[in-house]
Design goal:
The protein is α/β, with parallel strands linked by helices. It is built from nine helices and nine strands. The protein has one domain: Glutaredoxin.
Length: about 280
């Protein structure tokens, strides 16, 4: 009986090993593909024209799973911040991808304002979302080990400097770590085991921005209410209506929404001509 050569046996084992690695990674292939093709900015594939709904403006959501708001070099830089091969086998990361995909299909959250009261890292005071009635409120989720959120902070800082704080609240909610304990850059930030530890992480995160940083609880209650999207962005109008949500916190879209809403309010909130 003819036996397989050692070389053929090794090739067979390599093939089996490759399949074992490939199977759990199959849902993450879009992330790898992002770095392989030139990308257009999100603003170019998002319709900024709002609808007129129940006496207010409602903007088109941007529920795109792909990071197409960034250039190829920007995505490459973010990928270098994490150990891709390690993260693909982490159960939390796979669950995060599943959450984002569900949200991108529109079924991951009830599309409305979800009230909350969270502590602010910088001043220690509680921030109550509904208590800010009459003001526009725009916020995103972020964390230490979340490269897209960190990349957005300088742009959101510019928004903070642009808008009158008596009319607009801009802030970040420190939510779930996206790549906790990653061996490359985030070894010192494993998934927090207590609220005290999470607060310390949030304090480090707050050093990266001028935005107020609120901290979600260990139960991820607010994170869950808003669709479990690590870098999701939302805008609430003065009446407490959710008027925009996005899977990724592209500051350009937030600026477009805020500018349009503020201009409309300054004009007396007329029923816009030509809007849906």
């Amino acid at each position: 009986m003819k036996t397989a050569s050692p070389k053929k046996v090794d090739m067979h084992r390599m093939g089996q090993r490759w399949l074992r690695y490939f199977y759990p990674m199959r849902k993450l292939l879009p992330i790898f593909l992002l770095a392989a093709f030139p990308l257009a900015a999100q603003v170019q594939n998002w319709d900024p024209v709002p609808a007129y709904v129940n006496g207010g403006l409602r903007f088109n959501d941007d529920l795109d799973f792909f990071l197409n708001g960034y250039t190829k070099p920007e995505i490459k830089a973010m990928r270098h911040e994490v150990s891709m091969w390690h993260m693909n086998f982490d159960k939390m990361i796979r669950a995060t991808v599943k959450d984002i995909q569900a949200y991108s299909e529109g079924g991951g959250m009830v599309p409305a304002m979800h009230d909350f009261t969270l502590p602010c890292v910088q001043n220690g005071k509680p921030f109550h979302l509904a208590a800010q009635r009459g003001k526009l409120r725009a916020f995103m989720f972020g964390s230490i080990s979340n490269p897209p959120a960190r990349a957005q902070l300088p742009f959101w800082d510019k928004l903070l400097a642009k808008y009158d704080t008596s009319k607009v609240d801009l802030f970040v909610i420190y939510g779930r770590e996206l790549h906790p304990g990653d061996k490359k850059n985030y070894r010192a930030f494993p998934a927090p085991a207590s609220m005290e530890q999470k607060m310390k992480y949030a304090q480090e995160f707050a050093k990266l921005t001028k935005l107020p940083v609120l901290v979600d609880g260990m139960d991820d209650n607010v994170f869950t209410a808003y669709g479990r999207v690590p870098n999701g962005a939302y805008v609430i109008d003065g009446e407490g209506r959710l008027i925009f949500r996005g899977t990724w916190a592209d500051s350009r879209k937030i600026e477009q929404v805020l500018d349009t809403e503020l201009k409309w309010e300054a004009e007396g909130k007329p029923k816009p001509k030509g809007l849906r």
